[in-house]
What we know:
Elements: E1 2-4, H1 7-19, E2 24-29, H2 35-47, E3 50-55, H3 75-84, E4 89-91, H4 95-98, H5 117-120, H6 124-139, E5 143-147, H7 151-163, E6 169-173, H8 193-214, H9 220-232, E7 237-246, E8 261-269, E9 272-279
Parallel strand pairs: 1-4, 2-3, 2-5, 3-4, 5-6
Antiparallel strand pairs: 7-8, 8-9
Helix pairs in contact: 6-7, 8-9
The protein binds pantoyl adenylate.
Amino acid sequence: MQKIETVREMQALADKLRAKEQRIGFVPTMGALHAGHLSLVKLARAKADVVVVSIFVNPTQFGPSEDYSNYPRPLEHDLELCAEAGVDAIFLPPVAEIYPKGCSTFVIEEAVSKPLEGASRPTHFRGVATVVAKLFNIVRPHIVVFGQKDAQQVAVLKRMAADLHLPVKFVVAPIMREPDGLAMSSRNRYLTAVQREDSVVISQALRRAQEMVAGGEHRDDRLIAEVTHLLSQKRRVRVIYVAMVDKDTFEPLRVVVPGKTLLAIAAWVDEVRLIDNVEL
Length: 280
Ligand code: PAJ
C-alpha cells in the first residue's frame, strides 16, 4: 500500500494509472475507520482496478463549536485496516497541502444543501463540497463511493458533480449497522455505555416508520409524530430534526412516494450528535 502525502505525488500517480487505462476507485474519509468505511472500500475494489482511500479531517466542514480538534485520529490502526482491506494507495495530506496559505475559493451548492443538516450546520456542506471537489481533482477517480449514512451529503455531492461537469461515477453503499441497529459512525466512540443504550432508539424509530408504511400509512405528519414520540421516550435524546424528504432534492414530501422517499433523523444523545435515515 502506497502512502501519499502531497497533491503533486497523488496527481502524478493518478496520471500514471490513467495512462495505463486503469480505473481508479476512490473512497474519501476522515479516518477513524470502521466496518461502514470498509464496506465502501470493498465496493470500490469490485468496481475499479485501483482503490485510493483518503484520510483527511477537513477543518472547513466543522462549525466553530464542533469537534474538529477532538475528532478521533487513530492513524496507525486506520492504516492497518486499509492494508488488510486491499487498499492500493492512501492519501493523507496535511491541512496546508489542501488549504495552502491564501486559498480563497469555495464550492457552494445552493439548494440541496439548505435544509436539515444544512439548516443546523450552516457552513458544513460548503466545506464538504469544497474538499470533495479538491479531492476529485487530486485523485482523478473514475468511480467514487459514498455511504447512504450521510444521505444528504450524497445528494449534495451528486448535484455538485453534475453542475460542475465532473466526470465521476457515483456508487452509494448501504448503511452498515451494529447488531442492535445503531448506524456505525466514527462518532459512536464518544458514547458512554448509558448513552449508547439510549442511542438505539434512533434506528428503532426509523424501523417503526417503515413498518407503518408497510401497514398502509403514507402521511408525513403521522409518521413524523410517531418517530418523534418514540425518540422522546429516552431521557438523553433530543431531536434536532425528523423529516420526510425527496431523496435527491431534499425537499419535503407530504406523502410517501415509493422509491423516492427518505425519512431522516438528527438527534443529540447528550452532547453527541447522531444522524440516521431509511428509505420508505
Ligand atoms: P466520514 O464521516 O469519514 O465518512 C466517509 C464515508 O463513509 C462517507 O461516504 C460516509 O457516508 C461513509 N459511512 C460512514 N458511516 C457509514 C456506515 N455506517 N455505513 C456506510 N457508510 C458509512 O463523510 C465524510 O467522512 C466526509 O464528509 C468526507 C466525504 C470525507 C469529506 O470530508
